[in-house]
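Follow-up to my post from last week.
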Amino acid sequence: MSDQATNEFVNDLTRDWPDDPENPKLVTLSQTLRQSSPALPAESLERIRADLRRSLVRRQREIIIWRWAPLAAAASLLVCVGGAYLFRHAAPGAGTTGQGPVRDTYQVVFTVPPTPAPDLPLVALERYASLY
Amino acid sequence: LTEDRETKIEELFDQFADKIGRYMLSRVGDVHTAEDLTSRVFAVVVRKFEQCRGSPAGWLWSIARTQLIQHYRSHRPAEALEEEPTDQQPLPSEHASRSDDSARIRAAIARLPEEQRELVRMKFFLEMHNQDIARALDMTRINVGVSLHRTLKRLRKILERQARHEHQSPPVAFNLRSRKLGIT
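User reply:
Got it. Predicted complex:
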């Protein structure tokens, strides 16, 4: 077989492998080569699978968070805007400016015990009747 | 939608976890580090699954490569990624479980230049299509085919040289299959 023919033959063999189940020679060669290379032990693969499952759960959580995050942000914004509106408009006088100083009024109540009436009149009117 | 996403990621894991693990192990040579890096690859898959366009193997390879670069940067900043010939480092558990042929093939792969080793990993460990390899390495599909041919040819030569050195026959499986493939 010439070099060119050999090249064509091998290239043809390796062209569409491994999708070519009709090519047992190359599949066997591949198996031989693969078997010559050590594989990870089954326990290692199981640990990797467990890691993969943890990553999947974590990623799923992240996806859910990111899916709901815009909605949560929009809701928060709405609550903030609504609260501000209510604060400025619904509460009377609250949040308004330009009024006078604040005046505080205090009412102090003193409780005085009742005093008995005096025996003599405060002014002796009869004595000074001549004056009026 | 999220359930569908999870199912697809799990399918991707079932299909590629072993391959990525094998690829990582061939790069770093340490089971714990390879496990950690493979786990990181799939953590990125979970985060960026929506970015997967076209071939998953090519996409996974690019993630794996990024993770490897980050690993080497954080652990050995002075060494470049291409200077990590870890394939030849035997794993302790391997000696018992691997056949002689496998060990010899692995040693032969380790003696390939880094570009060809990466090609072998991409083609045979990650089972990437030539088109995807071409896209990942910024080559044409024909160039990938030619490079693969040269790589396999070189691998066979290395195996034959090893066999001569050890006064043994080359790994039977590879030898026969190489001939069947027309790699002379």
